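Retro notes (design track)

What went well: tokenization of the new backbones is finally stable.
What didn't: we kept losing track of which sequence belonged to which structure.
Fix going forward: every design gets posted as structure first, then sequence, in one message. First example under the new rule, 244 residues:
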């Protein structure tokens, strides 16, 4: 999807496929080469790493130069988001896609109660930060949160990123809430030719009866993530051109 989107808008994108036997030193060497190549404006390392060796994924994301970190996963860029600098770095793609979807729905974020379920480095944590800096009052939930249904029931905006199919029940959702479902899990489905289908973390069929806006899975947050990645790459190229 990322390669296709890039081609459609004239970005030259190269997919470097490494063997699963690649080790940390080798991966760092490749990143170092890409970091120093002036023809390369953006670098992403597809996570999770599909590798037989143990590789520190935080070290890898921190090894992409911040000015080429179009995934927005380097600690420098993440730190900027955490302290409310949303302009000088790169916003992480899935979280900024969630924000854009809510903005485009016309929902007022300022003053809303936004509940984010999940606190991962890639999705939940930066989603919480982004909504906080858009003046929402944010509650962040995670695997140890008690009475999740009661917290969800108070959400004007609900963003879910947990990776547990249909965990969030439709009846928990406040009438008129905006629901953004980041989850993508493949579950068995004998009625499909492939034998499986993708589902989100929210029970879509029940939730859609209560939500004012809700993202489907697939076809919601996923494509938005790709769009935000393209936006970051264009931004990276513009920034690089300005430093020439
Ligand atoms: P993760 O496993 O890193 O984090 C999951 C989070 O959910 C954790 O913070 C955990 O505390 C919380 N959690 C787990 N069980 C819970 C429960 N029962 N109640 C409350 N919280 C619970 O996952 P991730 O990388 O954040 O991804 C989450 C989902 O989003 C996955 O399905 C993933 O495939 C999907 N995802 C989609 C995109 C996209 O582009 N659409 C991008 C990244 C991730």
């Amino acid at each position: 999807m990322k390669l296709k989107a890039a081609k459609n808008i004239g970005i030259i994108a190269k997919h470097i496929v490494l063997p699963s036997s690649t080790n940390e030193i080798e991966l760092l060497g490749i990143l170092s080469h890409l970091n120093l190549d002036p023809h390369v404006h953006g670098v992403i390392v597809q996570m999770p790493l599909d590798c037989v060796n143990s590789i520190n994924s935080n070290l890898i994301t921190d090894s992409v130069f911040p000015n080429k970190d179009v995934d927005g996963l380097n600690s420098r860029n993440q730190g900027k988001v955490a302290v409310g600098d949303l302009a000088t770095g790169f916003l992480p793609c899935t979280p900024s896609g969630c924000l854009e979807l809510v903005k485009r729905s016309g929902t007022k974020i300022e003053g809303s109660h936004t509940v984010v379920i999940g606190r991962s480095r890639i999705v939940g944590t930066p989603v919480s930060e982004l909504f906080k800096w858009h003046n929402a009052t944010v509650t962040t939930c995670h695997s140890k949160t008690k009475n999740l249904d009661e917290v969800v029931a108070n959400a004007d905006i609900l963003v879910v990123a947990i990776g547990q199919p249909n965990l969030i029940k439709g009846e928990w959702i406040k009438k008129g809430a905006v629901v953004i479902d980041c989850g993508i899990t493949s579950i068995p489905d004998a009625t499909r030719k492939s034998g499986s289908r993708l589902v989100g973390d929210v029970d879509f069929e029940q939730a859609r009866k209560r939500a004012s806006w809700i993202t489907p899975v697939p076809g919601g947050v996923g494509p938005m993530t790709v769009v935000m990645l393209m936006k970051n790459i264009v931004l990276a190229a513009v920034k690089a051109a300005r430093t020439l």
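Added context from the reviewer: The pocket of nicotinamide-adenine-dinucleotide is lined by residues 94, 117-120, 122-124, 141-143, 145, 148, 161-164, 167, 182-185, 221-222, 225 (CB under 6 Å).
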